[in-house]
Amino acid sequence: MSVLLALMLLAGPLSTGDDPRGRAVLDSVISVLGRVQDYTVRLEIVVDIERISVPPMEATLYYKHPDRVHIESDGVAMIPREVLPVAISAIPDRFTVEDTRRDTLKGMEVLRLGLEPHQATARTRRLSLAVDPGKWLPVQLATSSVDGRTMTADFEFTAVEGLWLPAEVLIRFDAAPEDSSERPSWEQTPPPGRTQRMARRGTVRIVYREYRVNTGLPDELFAPANGAEERPRERN
Hints:
- The protein has one domain: outer membrane lipoprotein receptor (LolB), chain A.
- Helices cover 13% and strands 43% of the residues.
- It has helices spanning 3-11, 20-33, 91-94, 185-188, and strands at residues 15-16, 38-49, 57-64, 68-73, 95-105, 108-117, 124-132, 137-145, 150-160, 163-174, 202-213.
- The longest helix has 14 residues, at 20-33.
């Protein structure tokens, strides 16, 4: 997407409904993130979530364009895959951009997309994506679940061999208010087939180190037998 279009989006009026301008922004983000063919990176993960005791851990993430992911670790790597930057490519399959607005985040002017799920039974009822219109990179992804829980991921990127790749992701979890009168009625009743679970508050910090880019990772590495997922999926 051109700089001219970015200026038009920033200067133009707010958009609502099925928003083609917002979809153009989302497509630009997916295009920038999709320029890398594959990479291998070491992850350092620190979990601080109530009622969970997890020591700092390391994992190795393998990615292959467009959406193959394989993670190896000695234990269970607590990584919400739907907030991994590579998962953004799956957003159009599950969500529609309903509105676009200008916003300020940490002193930066951003474009914030509001998205609604295609399916009425989806656990995630609302998704918000803040985008840096200068680089077309995601700055923040926030989700609201049917039970009132929220998850917010703040992204930082670094340039590696001319490609923008994740440097750090800070994920924050929050539970619904204890007083349900503070929550909209649609958040208090899960959709058919869903049950409410006890929510936990806390953070997960993921730092990406030691990238190896475009080495030609074999398809066999991402076979289901290796525990790989071809597309990061929404947790049920």
